[in-house]
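To fix ideas, we reproduce below one chain and its tokenised fold.
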Amino acid sequence: MTQTRGLGVRLHDLWNRQGVQRFWRYSLGSVVTFGVSQLVFLVVYGLQWASPQVATLWSFAAGIPVNYLLNRRWAWRRRGRPGFREELLPYAGVIAVSIVASALATGAVDNWLQTADLPRAAGIVLVGTTFATINGGLFLAKYVLLDRLVFRDRPRSGPADGRPRDVERVP
């Protein structure tokens, strides 16, 4: 006789999968990073301190340390010194795509606004929404790239006997 498991048990089992917890930690970390980046973007662009492209650079400069630390240490639970080629360079590549996409999109909307007869506040909202939309749209793609490329488990060279050592991951 087959016994059916209750919904609560199935949800508990699903939640306990490492990938599911990692995704939710990544999501929460992304919300924090988004808040920091969006605030910096709106302040720099909204107060007319810089163009949307420069505001994008400032917002990423503020968000990258927060994002990297939350993702590496909390979402993927990585400790120890990161490898430049194995981790930092791929991370920089993933973030560079986000920066370029955000700068191009916000710049295009800002250029269009130069010809539109809209109040400045509406322009700030449109460009800020564009920034948020691009980064929100890249959310899943960044997760996959970070999981498969940047923070993936790699065997490390082991002790003198040549056996590989596991990546240090804290439960």
The radius of gyration is 20 Å. The chain has one domain: 16-150. Residues 16-150 form one domain.
